[in-house]
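Hi U.,

Before I forget, here's the chain from the pilot set. I'm dumping it here mostly so it's searchable later in email.
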Amino acid sequence: MNYKETFLDYLQFEKRYSDHTILSYRTDLEQFEKFIMEEAGDADPTAANGKLIRSWVIRLMDSGQNASTVNRKISTLKSFYKYLMREQQINTNPMDKVLSPKQSKKLPAFVEADKMDLLLDEYEFGDDFRGVRNRLIIEILYITGMRQAELIGLKEGDVDLFELNIKVSGKRNKQRIVPFDRTYLDIIKTFIKLRNEEFPESAYPNLFLTDKGKPLYPKFVYKVVNTYLRFVTTMEHRSPHILRHTFATHMLNSGADLNAIKEILGHANLSATQVYTHNTFEKLVTIYKQAHPRA
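Structure:
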């Protein structure tokens, strides 16, 4: 029996997987069949054991394939052998002792502090409603680390000009209070004044509005951030979320407490915040190699 084809039929007609996903499964299984034929002289997957499968994983890694790709292929085999167990074609699952290679964590990208200073201190945004708004969008994202959706949802009443803080409604409508420095008070006051002069009868309570007086939307915020970051960095991704990464990284590099950053970012647990410590460690390694005479 051609177990591969019956498995793929199962994915197509019972699991309703897409053609693209089924093609990926087919490719992985055909690669595995080719390997076991070369190694054991038999392409029957029911005859493969854990040792043979682990040898295939090692060959994949040695060939230069990254851990993400290899883990996807392992996932294919896990689904395949689970199916064979269900169909009683095998008595033991050879995948039980096959471990997935660890994937290297991708460090959050961020804009260097001097480049953010260059943008916010030297670039002329303009003094009209549009210019002040665009500058403040970038300022708020950078000085608070809030998410794009949180920025869009800000109301004028969320900004406390006396206590110098902003009430942010995060995921699952969980609210937090984020402070801002007095140096930003003037630009916030100026923007609110321009906003109310530009749209005196606005029906929207949102702090930020588009050129047409409507609430912001994700594509609009992305365009603003992408446009201005392009002036100071050549990094590929220039999204609003990059400014969140930039805020956290710069705070850590300046000695801020990790738990305080967690609260400001609105993370549910500390592990989500700890990813930024890797960037800080990378900086320490660089400084060490540059400064230590024996490094």
